[in-house]
């Protein structure tokens, strides 16, 4: 069996074929969504602005080590934030890195976490249309995500049903810092709508719910906050399992995006052990938790914990399941993963193609 080592001397000899599951588009100006936003809400934003559950609501929830959490070279020459220039995105990322399909994950303005629910609903509708008009119609390699104001379940279901038949959309985006754990029944109509419309749920790190970033309270440093995303995602997975979401909706597909993956085997083992002893508390969970995770949950590769040796990384992938891994770059953010060098392991050509392309093709049902 042949192997491909992702070292720089060999990278240029291999033609990449990539589905990037995490690209962050940005607006050059907030006025870009005005054509898709009712006059009432344009005036509201002008007078009152956005209202999230932290101070300085139009700022990031924690000071970043890099402005806009972005690569320095991702600022367009013509101005605007990183991710706002389609031409630079094509030149810097889509073309040289062999991106055949790129999934858009808009994060700015965080419409799902707006305290004013009606504003959040209006923003999600506007930003969904903005993705299609500003990006997908201009670049056929890109796909949009259905943004929802998840605290308004009725409106979220309506938006999912409205976008569900549109091939420009490939997934439903939820940020995990919701008002309550995502397994709670108030969110179940969203999962039902996802299954009905044959769309997966992507849970991407982020959101603001007013709660501290960690179970131990607020962090002092960006590095602490950055590590807390793994804790958040573990809580999300446990909630989906033990609240019964994955049992109730066996056709639901969930991807954990940008939350790391080194913790997956230990979480599975811990959940299985406790389920074996305490399952009488959760009779609706009918099989070991790891089986639900193995069948219905996928994980993106960025940011990826990198063990000291190639063998350890291979072992980690073996334990999670090679077919459960979706490649992502996080373009244009500072911890971007270049697909040529993202895996510090001796992968076979088949393994590499599976991680970079085939898994996502099957997961998003792109055929």
From TrEMBL:
The keyword Repeat does not apply. One of its GO terms (cellular component) is cytoplasm. One of its GO terms (molecular function) is hydrolase activity. Keywords: Lyase. One of its GO terms (biological process) is secondary metabolic process. Residues 19-366 form the Amidohydrolase-related domain. Coiled coil: none annotated. The keyword Lyase applies. PANTHER family: 2-AMINO-3-CARBOXYLMUCONATE-6-SEMIALDEHYDE DECARBOXYLASE, ISO-OROTATE DECARBOXYLASE (EUROFUNG). This is Amidohydrolase.
């Amino acid at each position: 069996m042949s192997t491909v080592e992702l070292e720089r001397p060999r990278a240029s000899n291999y033609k990449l074929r990539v589905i990037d599951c995490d690209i962050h588009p940005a607006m050059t100006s907030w006025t870009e969504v005005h054509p898709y936003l009712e006059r009432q809400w344009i005036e509201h934003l002008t007078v009152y602005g956005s209202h999230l559950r932290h101070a300085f609501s139009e700022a990031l929830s924690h000071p970043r080590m890099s402005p806009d959490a972005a690569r320095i070279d991702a600022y367009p020459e013509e101005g605007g934030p990183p991710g706002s220039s389609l031409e630079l995105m094509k030149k810097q990322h889509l073309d040289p890195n062999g991106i055949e399909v790129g999934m858009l994950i808009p994060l700015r303005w965080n419409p799902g976490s707006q305290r004013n629910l009606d504003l959040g609903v209006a923003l999600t509708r506007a930003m969904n249309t903005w993705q299609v008009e500003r990006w997908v119609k201009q670049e056929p390699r890109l796909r949009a995500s259905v943004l929802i104001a998840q605290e308004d379940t009725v409106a979220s279901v309506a938006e999912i049903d409205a976008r569900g038949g549109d091939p420009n959309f490939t997934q439903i985006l939820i940020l995990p810092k919701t008002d309550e754990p995502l397994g709670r029944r108030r969110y179940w109509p969203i999962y039902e709508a996802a299954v009905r419309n044959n769309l997966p749920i992507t849970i991407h790190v982020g959101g603001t719910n007013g709660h501290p970033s960690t179970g131990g309270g607020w962090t002092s440093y960006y590095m602490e906050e950055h590590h807390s995303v793994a804790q958040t995602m573990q809580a999300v997975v446990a909630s989906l399992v033990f609240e019964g979401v994955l049992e109730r909706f066996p056709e639901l597909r969930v991807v954990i995006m940008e939350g790391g993956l080194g913790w997956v085997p230990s979480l599975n083992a811990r959940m299985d052990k406790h389920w074996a002893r305490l399952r009488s508390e959760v009779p609706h969970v009918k099989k070991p938790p790891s089986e639900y995770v193995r069948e219905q949950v996928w994980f993106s590769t960025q940011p990826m914990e990198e063990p000291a040796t190639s063998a350890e990384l291979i072992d980690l992938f073996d334990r999670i399941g090679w077919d459960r891994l979706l490649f992502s770059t996080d373009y244009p953010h500072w911890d971007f993963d270049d697909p040529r060098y993202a895996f510090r392991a001796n992968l076979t050509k088949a393994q590499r193609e599976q991680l970079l392309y085939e898994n996502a093709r099957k997961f998003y049902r792109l055929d």
